[in-house]
């Protein structure tokens, strides 16, 4: 019998939660909230499975009221607690005067 773990399984047999990668695009004055080294107004964040839009907004220190228009994979949403998936693209726009 093989004594190793299966791919993605921890030592106790429980599947490990793999981190996911989310591309985040910020626009206008929100670009200053991107991590150092980001270019082109976008970055890729590595997040735990189950992360939400709120997770991203909080991690980037964006005040919730400045996340005026949010798109996930090109579709507008206000469901900030909806879990994101590996490879999603999140675009956040500030209020426009």
Name its key features:
five-stranded mixed beta sheet; disordered N terminus; 97 residues; globular; mainly beta; 1 helix
Range of strand content? 25-35%
Give the strand order, joined by hyphens, for the main sheet: 2-1-5-3-4
| Helical/strand content category | mainly beta
| Assembly state (oligomeric) | single chain
- Largest β-sheet summary: 5 strands, mixed
> How many helix segments?
1
The helicity comes to under 10%
Uncertain residue ranges = 1-7
What's the number of extended β-strand segments?
Answer: 5
SSE succession:
EEHEEE
Instruction: Evaluate the radius of gyration.
Output: 17 Å
Termini separation: 67 Å
The geometry reads as: globular
**Can you give the mean pLDDT?**
88
Walkthrough of the structure:
The protein is mainly beta and 97 residues long. Helices cover 7% and strands 26% of the residues. The chain is built from one helix and five strands, in the order E-E-H-E-E-E. It is globular and about 55 Å long.
Summary?
With 97 residues, the protein is mainly beta. It has one helix and five strands. It has a five-stranded mixed β-sheet, with no helix packed on it.
SSE layout:
Blueprint: E1 20-26, E2 42-47, H1 53-59, E3 69-72, E4 75-77, E5 89-93
Parallel strand pairs: 1-5
Antiparallel strand pairs: 1-2, 3-4, 3-5
